Amino acid sequence: MAVAKHFGIGLFMLVLAQYLLMNFPFGDLKAGIKSERGLLSASFLELGPLERLGFAFMASFGLQCNYLGAWKWGEAAAVAFGYGSAGGAWNGAQNSDLRLWFLSENMSSASKAWNQKTQVWLQTYTYFRVPGGRFAQLMSTYAVSAFWHGFYPGFYLAFFTLGLYSVGQDNMIKHVRPYFLHSTAAKKVYDVLGVVVLQWVKTTAILPFAVYTLENSYEAHKRLYFLGLVAPVIGLLVPFIVPPPKPKAKQS
C-alpha cells in the first residue's frame, strides 16, 4: 500500500510537470532571448503583466513538480525493497514533504521539506560548522548547495536569492511580526501573506537555476519587472526602517 501511495503521488507529479513544462516552457536556453517559445521568447513580451506572472508561476511550479515526482518514485522504490520503515509509517526514506513545501510560511521550514536527505547533510556538515553567525551559515550552506549542482551562474543566483530571503525573513520576524500578534486575525493575515510571498519568491528564485546564464537570468527577472527581488530587498532593509517593538514593562 505504501509503495502504491508513493508511486501514485510521484506519477501524478511527473505527469503534471510534463504538462506544465510543455505548455509553459522556459525556452531554448542555448538560444536565450532568441528562443521561439517560452519565457525567453519574443512572444512572451506580448503578454500583459498578469499573464507574464502567471506564466512564470506555472513554469516554475512545473519544474518543482518534476523534482518532487522523481523523489516520490525514489521513495516508492526504497519502500518496495523494504527500506524506510519508521514504526510502520514507511516514511523513513522520505525526501520531500509536499504539504510543508507548498504551504510553508517561511524559507527555513520550506528548505527542510525539499530534498530532505541532502538538507540534513548540508545542515550537519556545513551550516552547523560555519562560524560567524546565521548570515554566514546560511550563505555558506547555499553556496555549497549551488557548487554541488555545477558552475552555471544561474545556480548561484538562485541559491543566494533564497539565502538572502531567509535573512530578510529573520528580520521580518524580529521587526514586523510582533506588531501582528495583538490578535488572532492579524496573526493569520501575516501568516497567509508569508505563504503567498514565499511562493512568489520561490517561483522567481528558481528562474536563474532553470535558465543557467547571467544573460538569461537577468532577462527573465527583467521580463517579470524584477518583482521577485522585492521581498528579499525589503527584508534586508527592514531593520533600518522598522524598529522592533519595545518589550512590555513588567507590572509591579
Could you provide a short overview of the structure?
With 252 residues, this protein is mainly alpha-helical. The protein is 65% helix and 0% strand.
Protein model, in words:
The structure is a single chain. The chain is mostly helical and 252 residues long. 65% of the residues lie in helices and 0% in strands. The radius of gyration is 20 Å and the shape is globular. The model has no long low-confidence stretch (mean pLDDT 93).
Major β-sheet annotation: none
Uncertain runs with pLDDT below 50, 5 residues or more? none
Query: What is the tally of beta strands?
Result: 0
Count of discrete alpha- or pi-helical segments spanning 4 or more residues? 10
Mean pLDDT: 93
The SS-based structural class is mainly alpha
Tell me the distance between the termini.
Answer: 61 Å
Order of helix and strand elements from N to C terminus: HHHHHHHHHH
Annotate the secondary structure layout:
Blueprint: H1 2-23, H2 49-80, H3 98-103, H4 107-111, H5 116-125, H6 134-149, H7 153-175, H8 184-211, H9 214-223, H10 230-241
Helix pairs in contact: 1-2, 2-8, 6-7, 7-8, 7-10, 8-9
Distinctive features:
252 residues; mainly alpha; globular
